[in-house]
Design brief:
By secondary structure, the protein is mainly α. The protein has helices spanning 3-23, 30-43, 47-58, 68-76. The relative contact order is 0.18.
Length: 81
């Protein structure tokens, strides 16, 4: 499996979890989503390099000096839009 394919698959999984978490309207449901975002961030050893790839293939605007965890949230959630 290529790295881009893995990133796309993981991003899609996080999007699905975000939809389920926020759709439930449960008070603490979003913690599952944020926990998964944190796990993905921890899994990416060279996070900055992967964050550039995510912004490229998802066409997300790059915000100068943004944290990799913020890029993951921007890529997988529409809640802040």
């Amino acid at each position: 499996m290529t790295a881009d394919y893995r990133l796309r698959r993981q991003t899609a999984a996080l999007r699905g979890l975000e939809l389920v978490s926020f759709r439930s309207r449960s008070r603490f449901a979003f913690y599952n989503y944020l926990g998964a975002v944190h796990e993905e961030y921890a899994r990416l050893a060279k996070a900055k390099r992967y964050m550039r790839r995510i912004t490229t293939f998802l066409d997300i605007p790059i915000i100068k000096n943004s944290q990799p965890s913020r890029v993951i949230i921007d890529a997988t959630s529409d809640a802040d839009g």
